[in-house]
Amino acid sequence: MPKTDNNSLLSQIDTIARGLSETFSPFCEVVVHDLKNPEHAILSIHNNLSGREPGQPATELGLARIASPEFPSIIANYSNQFADGRPVKSTSIGIKDDEGKYVAALCLNVDMTLFRGMQSALARFTETADSPIKEHIDPGSNEVIRQRIDDFAAKCATTARALKPEDRKRLIQQLRKDGLLNVRKSMDTVAQHLGVSRATAYLYARQSAQAGE
């Protein structure tokens, strides 16, 4: 690849890197590597979290890419760490020239410190203990209904309140098939959990019943 073309490619990659770093700031460092110059591979670092500087050499992963065009173009979400021990989730993307040789890499390093702290806090907060006395403050199977709705939404890669109308109809049809709409005030629970009015929930129920006939 001519030097001018290589510089143009690196410039475009650097623009992408800057946009990614601004999107995921302050948690993600984005690094552009010039693999044509392994001794000074780091071209730029956006949202610098690792303390490295432009001009530093390629990492072991970068050298492996330079050595073999067969090296995977994407290695995503692998465990890493900064020099001070902070845990990192990294993704490395290799970029090839027209001849199929690696000439650059775009790397994302996410500082997991805050997220792991949040994860620990949430785990502690949601932790429950066994009790010798069983108490049911939610009569009937309304909690089961809410869980079924959440499970259905998760399979649609969304949340209960973000379900599309057609998905809501399919959900209610499934709840009816499972006998959960026979539970006292079941439609109130469905409406509340979906974030719709009671009238809308009943409309979905009628439409799903007609569709199932």
TrEMBL record:
InterPro entries: DauR-like, DauR-like_HTH, YheO. Pfam families: HTH_22, PAS_6. Residues 10-120 form the YheO-like domain. Keywords: DNA-binding. The keyword GTP-binding does not apply. GO terms for molecular function: DNA binding. It comes from the Bacteria. Residues 145-205 form the Transcriptional regulator DauR-like HTH domain. The keyword Protein transport does not apply. PANTHER family: TRANSCRIPTIONAL REGULATOR DAUR (PTHR35568). This is DNA-binding protein. It comes from Citrobacter braakii.
